[in-house]
């Protein structure tokens, strides 16, 4: 199947199970990021904590956020590189970093992962 990313065209014929497993890791990382605002609210609403304790907890959450964002970016890159190399393309880090957006990469990776999924086809009776 052909996929266009900006001015580049990629013929992706195979997406291995490693990519699918890493995509689950990506989803888990994103879920963990999505939980952080709730944690901030919990700290803000906790009347038993002193201001110093709240500040320390906020710093911990900020550190967790940085680590989760970094992990998310690394996992997404890992999937991207695996898809490209498995399909005989060389990963051009300069092009992907400077000529594409995060949305471009997310769309490409997700479209590649979904390309082989079977639709809800009706079974023969």
**Morphology call:** elongated
**From N to C, what is the helix and strand string?**
EEHHHH
* Proportion in helices: 55-70%
Overall pLDDT score: 92
Derived structural class: mainly alpha
How far apart are the termini? 30 Å
What's the Cα radius of gyration?
20 Å
> In percent terms, what proportion of residues is strand?
5-15%
Instruction: Tell me about the largest β-sheet.
Output: 2 strands, antiparallel
Q: Counting H and I runs of at least 4 residues, what is the number of helices? A: 4
Number of DSSP-assigned strands:
2
Low-pLDDT segments, ≥5 res:
120-125
Descriptive report:
With 125 residues, the chain is mainly alpha-helical. 67% of the residues lie in helices and 6% in strands. The protein has 4 helices and 2 strands, in the order E-E-H-H-H-H. The chain has helices spanning 17-45, 51-86, 93-98, 102-114, and strands at residues 2-5, 8-11. The protein has a two-stranded antiparallel ribbon. A hairpin with a 2-residue loop joins strand 1 (2-5) and strand 2 (8-11). The radius of gyration is 20 Å and the shape is elongated. Mean pLDDT is 92; it is low at 120-125.
Task: Give a concise summary.
The protein contains four helices and two strands. The chain has 125 residues and is mostly helical.
